[in-house]
Here is the input.
Amino acid sequence: MIYRDIIDELIRWSDKNNRKPLILRGARQVGKTTAVNIFSEQFEQYIYLNLEKVEDKSLFEKYKDVDDLVKAIFFTKKKKRDVSKTLLFIDEIQEHPPAMAMLRYFHERHSDLFVIAAGSLLESIFSKDISFPVGRVDYRVVRPMSFGEFLMAMNEIEALKELKNVPLNSYAFDKLLKLFHIYALIGGMPEIVSDYSKNEDLTELGDIFETLIASYLDDVEKYARNDSMVQVIRHTIRSSFSEAGNRIKLYGFGRSNYGSKEMGEALRTLEKAMLLSLIYPVTQSKLPLLPDHKRSPKLQLLDTGLMNYFAQIQTEVLGTNNLTNVYRGKVAEHIVGQEFLAVKFNVLSQLNFWVREKVQSEAEVDFIYPYHGKLIPVEVKSGATGRLRSLHQFMDMAEHNMAIRFYSGNVQLDKIKTINNKFYNLLSLPYFLASQIERYLDWMETQIK
Here is the structure.
């Protein structure tokens, strides 16, 4: 089984003195169950419940009191209650919504148990009379694998060490770039990465991609509120693969006749299912970060590999030396955004980009990254630094002097002058270092000083 970074986050959770039950969020097939199974090896006793199974679900249906429920669980699973460290994992908790409300009582009356629950589409499928145990549970998110996790799965341990070395050693550049192009091609879905790590055969992955996409389409009936919305959401899923990386309009999305209201509901439902993200722009250059929800958002998919497969651009990605030249630059920008999120486990983590406040302006910066009280502009571009016109416009407004550019070249720190004669520091990084952005911002500050 592939070790995931979320396991380190689970260890930190388990070490808390005032530990609460933990809810793991994430789309289907991103590896929630596998991560918990690996994590369970640190416990004396492990109880696994899957509420898709009738016998496990029936325990929650029959026993409404948490004391009786705990006794029934231990008895049914033939476990000992007096063991000091027991991990209880309630998988597919969405199959019985009242089980969510029960989590508060595990915290209040059985705090010695280590309780994790996992499920997809939690907000979408729970009826309004089921209350979430607000303040009595913690949340973490599992996303597709990061580049670092991909390297570990490929047993590229030395490459992983070099990835985390700041600044990058020049001799490691070529190999990491080559490996990153493979990662950008196949994406971070665990089943895909696992198969490739064993066989290193790209042609075998097609069936797995088909199965993953089909499973998401089949899931629609579980969270669409009626038959009409089933069709709208299915259309939205199919269209999202070709619209990923673009700024979108709700009305007529995917060349349809659907209105803004229908498409808005469909996209929000899929966002709650964590199959996609709507990335909204900001117009300011300093905190607080206030996304403008009146402007058209960019569309970010769960996984770049799924996007590449559906758009049939895998051969183009495989043959390039520069991702920014592929698919009008969307692959490079999309995988950088995916990497930013892959190392974040907070449910509130999000992506944003910048546009100029004037409605007619075309100035746009790919990402805005909050860092130590600053909003750092991030571009994903190749070419000369003088071509970064939108970045210059942002820096003319900014109260700091730091900017990032991801590209196909090596680490480089330049002093740049805008059209308005303001000097700022531009750190250019190879796009395979996207997951290391905070460590490089720390390094950049020391270099500037």
Remarks:
- The longest helix spans residues 227-243.
- The two ends are 44 Å apart (CA to CA).
- The longest strand covers residues 423-430.
- The chain is about 40% helix and 15% strand.
